[in-house]
Specification:
- The structure is a single chain.
- Helix content is 52%, strand content 22%.
- By secondary structure, it is α+β, with helices and mostly antiparallel strands.
- It has two domains: 77 residues, PH-domain like (Roll), CATH 2.30.29; 83 residues, no CATH class.
- The strands form two sheets. Strands 1-2-3-4 form a four-stranded antiparallel β-sheet, with no helix packed on it. A three-stranded antiparallel β-sheet has the order 5-6-7, with helices on both faces.
- A hairpin with a 3-residue loop joins strand 5 and strand 6.
- Helix 2 packs antiparallel against helix 3.
- The longest helix is centred in the middle third of the chain and has 39 residues.
Length: 168
């Protein structure tokens, strides 16, 4: 079976957001980013305590650092999403989008063949590491951060998930 897939920048952005929220690497990066600023603040507090800074200064620092840390922990995911958008905009300006806007996918007997302008990619079903369905997409992972992004509206009413489960 063959399907033509049209991806937009928003589709690619949603894939990267999904990867950030669900992959081990994405979760680790988000966790590290969330802890970085509070850890620095804690280090500053320890240095102030060792330097015998007045209790009022330390208390004021603690209040300011706590509030700032809470805001930071909450805002990190949106900051990462903003960085993804900026990277995508930069790639677009450079004329080097990291995805094919239009591609044809053939789900053959032993492999998936993606044909896009200027390239053909073949991935064996045995190389697929996971199939992650969402309400709007099916992500077919075949590498650490590599996946075929299949918008559900491009596959009509075909049950691609069941087909892929039988192959992987």
């Amino acid at each position: 079976m063959k399907f033509t897939v049209n991806l937009s920048e928003n589709d690619f952005f949603k894939f990267n957001e999904y990867y950030m929220k669900h992959s081990a690497q994405g979760k680790k990066s988000t966790f590290t980013a969330r802890l970085l600023l509070p850890a620095v603040f804690l280090l500053i507090m320890v240095i102030c305590l060792l330097a015998n800074t007045g209790m009022l200064v330390i208390l004021l620092e603690a209040v300011i650092f706590t509030i700032t840390s809470i805001v930071w922990v909450i805002k990190v995911p949106s900051m990462i999403s903003g960085n993804i958008r900026k990277s995508l905009e930069t790639a677009k300006k450079d004329g080097k989008l990291p995805f094919h806007e239009t591609a044809e996918f053939e789900f053959a007997e032993t492999e998936i063949i993606e044909t896009a302008p200027g390239s053909v990619k073949t991935v064996k079903y045995s190389d697929i590491t996971s199939v992650d369905p969402t309400d709007d997409y099916i992500y077919i992972f075949y590498g650490a951060a590599q996946a075929f992004v299949i918008p559900r509206h491009c596959i009509e009413n075909y049950d691609l998930e069941s087909f892929l489960k039988s192959k992987t």
